[in-house]
TrEMBL record:
InterPro entries in UniProt: AGR/TXD, Thioredoxin-like_sf
Lineage: Eukaryota, Metazoa, Chordata, Craniata, Vertebrata
Keywords: Signal
Record has Signal as a keyword: yes
Organism: Sciurus vulgaris (Eurasian red squirrel)
Highest taxon listed in the record's lineage: Eukaryota
Protein's name in the database: Anterior gradient 3, protein disulphide isomerase family member
């Protein structure tokens, strides 16, 4: 009987510890909710302040995507953004990435108004690069799905600006 209860206790401990290990493992790699559909393999920062900190520390530009869940233009852009390998690869390796569904207190992030979708670049010296624009004169920082080549070019431009400043 003693052996039987010791065995039962042992099995119970193994079950509890393996469930705990599974729970801990799950905890360690959080579900990528910060991507909000923009790219699950990208490491996303949670706040603008965190983005600025990492941009400065890593000497990478910060890319800030302003969007809203119920905006059809945002959804359309998000879909092609998430499917584009070149953008995803650059975003993963060369940028600090932030997507926001609310405005920040930094007025420099909305030089021509608060609209979505809006993509801004901030260099590692923490300067908002208002000079990196899309193709629409009435909304300088918006991109449509067919503007991906321009967005890719602007991402490369943001990277070149850093290289030239080193």
């Amino acid at each position: 009987v003693m052996l039987h209860s010791a065995l039962a206790l042992f099995l119970l401990l193994i079950t509890v510890s393996s469930s705990l290990a599974i729970a801990i493992r799950k905890e360690k790699r959080p579900a990528q909710t910060l991507s909000r559909g923009w790219g699950d393999d990208i490491t996303w920062v949670q706040t603008y302040e965190e983005g600025l900190f990492h941009a400065q520390k890593s000497n990478k530009p910060l890319m800030v995507i302003h969007h809203l869940e119920d905006c059809q233009y945002c959804q359309a852009l998000k879909k092609v953004f998430a499917q584009n390998e070149e953008i995803q690869e650059m975003a993963q390796n060369n940028f600090i990435m932030l997507n926001l569904m609310h405005e920040t207190t930094d007025k420099n992030l909305s030089p021509d108004g608060q609209y979505v979708p809006r993509i801004m670049f901030v260099d590692p010296s923490l300067t908002v690069r208002a000079d990196i624009t899309g193709r629409y004169s009435n909304r300088l920082y918006t991109y449509e799905p067919q503007d991906l080549p321009l967005l890719i070019e602007n991402m490369k431009r943001a990277l070149r600006l850093i290289q030239s400043e080193l």
